[in-house]
Amino acid sequence: MATNKDHKICRIQKLGNLGSDIQNLLREAVEARLTSYSPYSKFQVGAAVLAEDGTIYKGCNIENASFPVGQCAEKTAFGTAICSGRRKFKAVAVVASQEKGFTTPCGGCRQFMSEFGEVDLYISKPELNEVLVTTLGNILPLQFEVCEDYSF
User: Fold this and answer.
1) Are 65 and 40 in contact (CB under 8 A)?
2) Is the CB of residue 61 less than 8 Å from the CB of residue 44?
3) What share of the chain is helix, strand, coil (3-state, %, to 5)?
4) Residue 93 half-sphere exposure, CB side, CA atoms within 13 Å?
5) How far apart are CA 146 and CA 98, in angstroms?
6) Taking a C-beta distance cutoff of 8 angstroms, is the pair 46, 36 a contact?
7) How far apart are CA 48 and CA 124, in angstroms?
């Protein structure tokens, strides 16, 4: 398998080194995190999706006593955007607080987001000191796809 050694799958950036639109997207994800309904895990996650037209849609994780029926922040944000008629997206920000590392989207959210095409991902902790910058394609390189005629 050939690889490009100069290609970086992800990089860590300071907030101030990102464009103002992405800084705002991350701040919206921080705000969305505060509305999380997470009485069981107490693990709050916020997400914000930047639509192609520049509109930002926010979402938070929503837990349920029956754990499988809860909803991740990314799906909530995308759902809000989709309900508003949006189908094309440029970027997604995800904010959560883990002591070590960054909270990347779960496998289900990665596949869900891939339905709407490639997007840039910005992942941070609530303080926004450092931001993990990557793309959906980098964290989900072989997503499930169907052909244009809906065959497999």
Assistant:
1) yes
2) yes
3) 30, 25, 45
4) 29
5) 35
6) yes
7) 12
Q: Which tokens go with 121?
A: 């991902």
Angle between helical axes of 73-83 and 107-114 (0-180°, round to 10): 20
Backbone angles phi, psi at 104, to 5 degrees: -85, 160
How do 130-135 and 120-124 pair as beta strands?
A: antiparallel
- Residues that are catalytic: 74
Q: Which tokens hold the place of 35?
A: 């509305």
Q: What is the pLDDT along the chain (152 residues), one digit of tens a residue?
A: 233 344 468 899 999 999 999 999 999 999 999 999 999 999 999 999 999 999 999 999 999 999 889 999 999 999 999 999 999 999 999 999 988 899 999 999 999 999 999 999 999 999 999 999 999 999 998 888 777 776 66
Q: Which amino acid is at 111?
A: Q
